[in-house]
Amino acid sequence: MSDVVPPEVRPKPAVPAKPPHVGAPSPSSPFPPQGPTASGGAAPAAPPSGIPVLIGGHGPSHSGSHALGHGAGHSGGHAVPHAGGHGHSGSHGSSGGSTLLGYIGIDTIIEQMRKKTMKTGFDFNIMVVGHSGLGKSTLLNTLFKSQVSRRSAGWARDEKIPKTVEIKSVSHFIEEGGVKMKLTVVDTPGFGDQINNDNCWEPIAKYINEQYEKFLKEEVNIARKKRIPDTRVHCCLYFISPTGHSLRQLDIEFMKRLSHSVNIIPVIAKADTMTIDERQEFKQRVRKELEMSGIEFYPQKEFDEDMEDKSDNDKIREAMPFAVVGSDKEYQVNGKRVLGRKTAWGVVEVENPNHCEFAQLRDFLIRSHLQDLKEVTHNIHYETYRAKRLNENGGLHPISSSDTQESNL
């Protein structure tokens, strides 16, 4: 008889104690797995007992070991359950604690929102205020590159000036790049055109509040619409005459009374009637008069959400009021077709920043702040009106539970 001991019962060097069912080591382990492999082969040589053996990839909080999910354990087809009663099929790092691997898809929320809003479309309501002859209709047509003004919608050009301020609105559906927008233009013919202009802003203020009232009544209904029609005025372009001197008392009075009800953006109309130096002096004078009168135009400083907004809006506030020129006629300039106004000494190009500030106004109004105009209208101006109405005696009141019970009886 030979004294050779079979490999199965040959004593092994001492190794640190480990939990049962130890699986393959972490990929960062320098040693092969201990014990028999899943394929039935002999165990490889163990490391010297003086070198600690890395067991799995768990920290001290785990009482069990890995499932056989790595290396040779794949051939068995089954994962050995964790000592705590759970099976692991994913890989874990050796730094302690598990790590989620792979793409989750949270960033697709933006795409989901985009698809949903593109289906419903957008509403944008803009009001233009100023006396006749300042080019309000022409500027709007130039802004949206469409015939959107009331005069372009079938109104007679020889229309007489109304005796009192009238409110006229016309809606258009504009689509660009798959984005649909319902644009409503609200004009105020007769404003500032009378000999006596006392309280000529009252019909405008009444119209603005009526739109808030319509939205509020829809909002407090028990069975309200899924999407409430939004006719609230999101922006009011106030046209200042290019006198080169100072604001009229009517300008100051109008903006002072309505600046807390609507987003007012002052613009200097027909800026090509002034030289560049005259224009800059007039802009500075207007800003100073607005500040002295306590008039806050959009974007207001208190609505800046962070330092980035403050930095961007400070630049806009320093450039306002925008000195603009509007035109819906094209001319040939240096081999290019441009929108402009032809004079005896050349063509004033509407979209040329060296000629006027129309491009800055369009970028500000449409490309960067259109959504913010809507949010400020809803979160600030409408909420102010809503709180006032709900607190008035005899006004609308929130529907209580008792009202709901009575309606159900």
TrEMBL record:
Annotated segments matching region Disordered: 1-95
Compositional bias segments (type: Gly residues): 84-95
Molecular function (Gene Ontology), one example: GTP binding
Lineage: superkingdom: Eukaryota
Main location: cytoplasm
Domain Septin-type G: 120-392
Biased composition (Low complexity): 60-69
Coiled-coil features, chain-numbered ranges: none
RNA-binding keyword on record: no
Localization: Cytoplasm
UniProt keyword terms in alphabetical order: Cytoplasm, GTP-binding, Nucleotide-binding
Family that this chain belongs to: Belongs to the TRAFAC class TrmE-Era-EngA-EngB-Septin-like GTPase superfamily. Septin GTPase family.
Official protein name in the record: Neuronal-specific septin-3
Natural source organism: Myripristis murdjan
